[in-house]
Specification:
The protein is an alpha/beta fold. It has two domains: 254 residues, Crotonobetainyl-coa:carnitine coa-transferase, domain 1 (Rossmann fold, 3-Layer(aba) Sandwich); 81 residues, 2-Layer Sandwich (formyl-coa transferase, domain 3), CATH 3.30.1540.10. Helix content is 36%, strand content 16%. The protein is built from 16 helices and 13 strands. Strand 9 and strand 10 form a beta hairpin. Helix 6 packs across helix 7.
C-alpha cells in the first residue's frame, strides 16, 4: 500500500534539525516533500562536519553526515527568496502545496511576502507551521533559540548529570547527547500538521501552527514537571538513577556496567533472588517502591556490592532468565550490530549517486498494512530544482536559464 500521506505536498523551508525532522517524517509517511535551500550553500547542516559523506573513491563530498539524518525522501530546490522572482517561485509552489514548514525568525518571512497572512490569501487551505525557539508571542519571541540553550532554559539540564555531593561537588549539569528538544519539536510539528490536515477535511480551511522549542521542552519534562507541580519538590540531578523508581539505574559490575530497571515489587523480589539476597525483598525498608525510594542510598549500596562480584554477562543472562528488566550500555556501533535492531529493520541501505549505498537509521513506525519505503536518498543541493520548476510550475528552458544566470536558482 502507498504511504498514508501519499498525495499530500509539503514545502519544507526549514533548516538545521527540528523542521527538517518533521519534513522527513512526513516524507517517510508518503508525502511529497520539496526542500527549499539557499543557492550555493543550502541547509546549514550540509557544512556541519567532519565527518562528510565519501564518494565511491573514498573522497569527501561537500555534504556533512549531519545533513543525512533529517533529509531523506525530499527534493532539493534552490531558490533565493531575497529576490522578487525567487519569492514568486515560493508563492507558486505554496499555491500547489498542502503544508509549509519554516523556522525563520519571528517575522522573518513577512518582509518577503511569504508569511502566513500573505500565503493564506492565495491558498486558504494551506497548513503553515512555524518553528522558533520561543514562539511568536511573549517577551523572548525575538530571541534566537538553539537546542542546547533550550535544554538549559527549559529545565532538562537541571535534571541531567551526576548530583553535586560531598565527593563530587562540581559535577555540574549536562546536556543530552543528541538534540532532543529539536527532535521532540519535529515530532510535535509532524503531529500538529497531520491533525490540521484531518481538521481541514471538516472545515475546508488551512491554519497556522506556532511551535516553540521552549514550549516543547517544558512539555516533555513529563514526570519531572509533575513531581514539582504536584509534589512541590524541585527535582535534582540523580545521574543514572530515577526520581520515582528504585532500583532503576546503572550499576558497576566486575568488568563494566549494566542497567537494572525494576518497575514493580514482583520484579524486585525476583531481582533479590538473582543477587542471592532473597530476604531483602521482605524487609520493611524495601518491600514497596515508596520504601525503596525513601531508602535509596542504603539499598543501592547493597546492590552495588553484590553486582561488583561478577561480570556483566553473568548478570545480564541471570536477570533475563528471571524476567528482571536489564540491559547493557551499548556504544553506537554495538547498537547497529544488535540483532534486534537488524531484525526490526532499523538499519537501512538506500541508493546514493555519489557513495553508491548509504546506511541510514530506519523509521520506527511499523504499520500492519502500509509499508514505509525510502525511495529517495537525502538530496544533493539543488538536485531537483529544474525538474520541480518544469513539472510543477511549467517554467520554460529560457526562464530557467535566466533564473540561473541571475543566481535566483
Amino acid at each position: 500500500m502507498a504511504g498514508p500521506l501519499k498525495g499530500y505536498r509539503v514545502l519544507d523551508m526549514s533548516r538545521i534539525l527540528a523542521g527538517p525532522w518533521a519534513g522527513q517524517l512526513l516524507a517517510d509517511l508518503g508525502a511529497e516533500v520539496v526542500k527549499i535551500e539557499r543557492p550555493n550553500s543550502g541547509d546549514d547542516t550540509r557544512h556541519w562536519g567532519p565527518p562528510y559523506l565519501k564518494d565511491q573513491s573514498g573522497k569527501d563530498t561537500e555534504d556533512a553526515a549531519y545533513f543525512f539524518c533529517a533529509n531523506r525522501g525530499k527534493k532539493s530546490v534552490t531558490v533565493d527568496i531575497t529576490h522578487s522572482k525567487g519569492q514568486e517561485i515560493i508563492r507558486q509552489l505554496a499555491l500547489q502545496s498542502d503544508v509549509l514548514i519554516e523556522n525563520y525568525k519571528v517575522g522573518g518571512l513577512a518582509k518577503y511576502g511569504l508569511d502566513y497572512p500573505a500565503l493564506k490569501k492565495i491558498n486558504p487551505k494551506l497548513i503553515y507551521c512555524s518553528i522558533t525557539g520561543f514562539g511568536q508571542t511573549g517577551p523572548y519571541a525575538n530571541r534566537p533559540g538553539y537546542d542546547f540553550l533550550i535544554q538549559g532554559m527549559g529545565g532538562l539540564m537541571s535534571v541531567t548529570g551526576e548530583p553535586d555531593n560531598f565527593d563530587n561537588k562540581a559535577a555540574g549539569p549536562v546536556k543530552v547527547g543528541v538534540a532532543v528538544t529539536d527532535l521532540f519539536t519535529g515530532l510535535y510539528a509532524a503531529n500538529a500538521i497531520q491533525g490540521a490536515l484531518l481538521e481541514r477535511h471538516q472545515s475546508g480551511q488551512g491554519q497556522y501552527i506556532d511551535l516553540a522549542l521552549l514550549d516543547v521542552q517544558a512539555a516533555v519534562l513529563a514526570n519531572q514537571a509533575s513531581n514539582y507541580l504536584i509534589g512541590g519538590t524541585v527535582p535534582q540531578r540523580l545521574g543514572n538513577a530515577h526520581p520515582n523508581i528504585v532500583p532503576y539505574q546503572a550499576f558497576a559490575t566486575a568488568d563494566s556496567h549494566i542497567i537494572v530497571a525494576v518497575g514493580n515489587d514482583q520484579q524486585f523480589e525476583r531481582f533479590c533472588q538473582v543477587i542471592e539476597i532473597p530476604l531483602m525483598a521482605k524487609s520493611p525498608l524495601y518491600s514497596t517502591n515508596a520504601n525503596r525510594v525513601h531508602n535509596r542510598q542504603l539499598l543501592c549500596e547493597t546492590i552495588s556490592l553484590s553486582l561488583s562480584q561478577k561480570d556483566s554477562l553473568y548478570w545480564l543472562e541471570s536477570f533475563a532468565a528471571s524476567d528482571v528488566p536489564c540491559g547493557p550500555i551499548n556504544s553506537i556501533d554495538q547498537v547497529f550490530d544488535d540483532p534486534q535492531i537488524i531484525a526490526r529493520e532499523m538499519l537501512i541501505n538506500v541508493t546514493e549517486s555519489r557513495s553508491g549505498t548509504l546506511k541510514m537509521v530506519g523509521n520506527p513506525i511499523k504499520y500492519s498494512r502500509t509499508r514505509i519505503e525510502y525511495p529517495i536518498s537525502p538530496p544533493q543541493l539543488g538536485g531537483q530544482t529544474i525538474d520541480v520548476l518544469q513539472d510543477y510550475l511549467e517554467y520554460s528552458e529560457c526562464q530557467l536559464t535566466d533564473l540561473h544566470v541571475k543566481g535566483i536558482i
